[in-house]
Amino acid sequence: MPKDTYTAAVDNLLDELREAVLTSRPENVPSFLQQRLSSAHFVVEAPPAESLGIHQKYPAALNEKALSIVVLGITGDLAKKKTIPALFKLFREGLIPTCSHIVGYARSEVQNLAAFRETFTPYLGKVDPSKELVISHFLSRITYVQGSYDKVEDFTKLDQHLREIEAPSQNQGNRLFYLALPPTVFVGACTGIRQAAMPQTGGWVRVIVEKPFGRDTASSNLLSQQLSALFSENQIFRIDHYLGKEMVQNIVTTRFANRVFASLWNNNNIANVQITFKEKIGTEGRGGYFDNFGIIRDVIQNHLTQILALVGMEKPRSLNAEDIRDEKVALLRCVEPVKVSDCVLGQYTASPDGKIPGYLEDPTVPKGSKCPTFAIMRLNINNDRWRNVPFIIKAGKALESKAVSIRIQFHEEVRPFLDKTQRNELVIRAQPNESMYIKITTKTPGLGMQAMDTHQTELDLTYQNRYQVDLPDAYESLISEAIFGSSTNFVRSDELEAAWEIFTPLLHAIDRGEVTPTPYVAGSRGPAEADKLTEACGYRRYAGYQWDSKI
Asked: Model's pTM, two decimal places?
């Protein structure tokens, strides 16, 4: 029976290794073999996807050229915990070709490629024993090039490696560069890519850049200018992983595909909007890093502001990426810069049981730091749709629970139930327990006087109950979109500028030490003043109601 191409390639590889050993006759044969195998000379094409039980779900056009995914900073935590696991899931689900090349690039020296590949195994999750072959083939696609981020000659070495693995495709390949790097080396790395590691004629190049994108409007604009001198806007994919979350991506569909919401989505019907991020953990030894940013730069300016734009924007002309991003920019430009008087800042102290030490007790945090670990603020949007509707943005660490949620609270109906009616509220939970539910007022079941009684309940769409599907990880979703060339859920440069302009005056005041955060106990809801601000914005909390996820 004739051999398939994969079996033939393996046989050729083993024959070459045998000949090399017999010719060189090294004293340490295993070490010699490891060195030979780690070289780029030996390239074995991946086995057919069908033999791995993988069914192709990506566009056929991806098969026309070699696909190389270069992860810069592959030895760091972000790559190990997020980027590589996301690529594995795309590989396993048939969303990228099984012959894709994953090339790691970092400063560290890797002497044993096989051992290096195995360092990713603990992060790939549990796999059915029958699928273990998929893991081994995925890991076999990972190669490594050592180099610095500011030397063009090192990127020339990277390009040579890419050309060798792209050789079966006549040096025509598409290249995706994922910068799992600190922002201080973005420009140097992108300069090296542009000058020395661009794909050959006919292939595309795309660069995924991680946040933070600057510290304020000026630094962000400078970074955008430096990157735009190297790549066009449609080649730059600024990743905000919240835009990859299923429930966040569903906001546009919920708003514009359902007339019941589209017709009510304005200041005639909506009393206020809350967008909340809460974590139970503190900075956990990373206080020194966090202190350089604070909760506003770390969460609010990017993640929550992106959600704000989707909740508040006008209907786009189409689902085209630029039409959607145009409307997001238009909305953000209507948001007034936040004032110190419209926000409450906090900093957590130790929990009563001592399990969470206070922020200032972290030895990596500068003594007497005024860095906020909690912030709540009122944003005002000056357009016809949202005039006089408070948007309450809240984010904090070391709080009573973990959640990312959106609450749209509607005005109450006054007659004929008077004080027996409660406000309707649409709640979208992005994490945990992805769900969407609407609080409604209903009659209390029963006879007699109960016929006039009401209570609050909900119409509930909890994803785990409704859909028999594992929701994709945010990084998995966004990397696949970048590979497919869809920029809808990535941040455009003018969108980034508009977002920074909202918060830069407040951030500068905090940086100058003009705002002192209010202490709050770890494990609590945050400063008491935060609830007062929420009440002042018109949000009504009804005692006795509690949503049950039913999971």
From this structure: 0.87
In the beta sheet, which residues pair with residue 346? 374, 518
- Confidence band for 9, pLDDT divided at 50, 70 and 90: low
Length of the chain: 551
- Is 303 an annotated catalytic residue? yes
Type of residue numbered 342: D
What span, in angstroms and rounded, lies between the C-alpha atoms of 408 and 387? 15
Rounded to an integer, the average pLDDT of 209-229 is: 94
Identify which of 84, 124, 81, 125 has the alpha carbon closest to the alpha carbon of residue 103: 84
- Helix (H), strand (E), coil (C) string for 329-346: HHHHCCECCCCHHHEEEE
Active-site pick, 101, 137, 241, 303: 303
Burial class from Cβ neighbours inside 10 Å (0-12, 13-18, 19+) for residue 133 reads middle
pLDDT in tens, 132-187: 788 889 999 999 999 999 999 999 999 999 998 888 766 578 999 999 998 899 99
Question: Under 8 Å CB-to-CB from 324, ≥6 apart: which residues?
Answer: 252, 313, 316, 488
Asked if 188 contacts 150 with a C-beta cutoff of 8 angstroms, the reply is yes
Best CA proximity match to 300, nearest among 366, 210, 240: 240
SS3 assignment, position 470: coil
Buried b (16+ CB within 10 A) or exposed e, 170-192: ebebbbbbbbbbebebbbbbbbb
Angle between helices 246-256 and 305-312 (to 10 degrees): 20
Q: Is the pLDDT of residue 40 over 50?
A: no
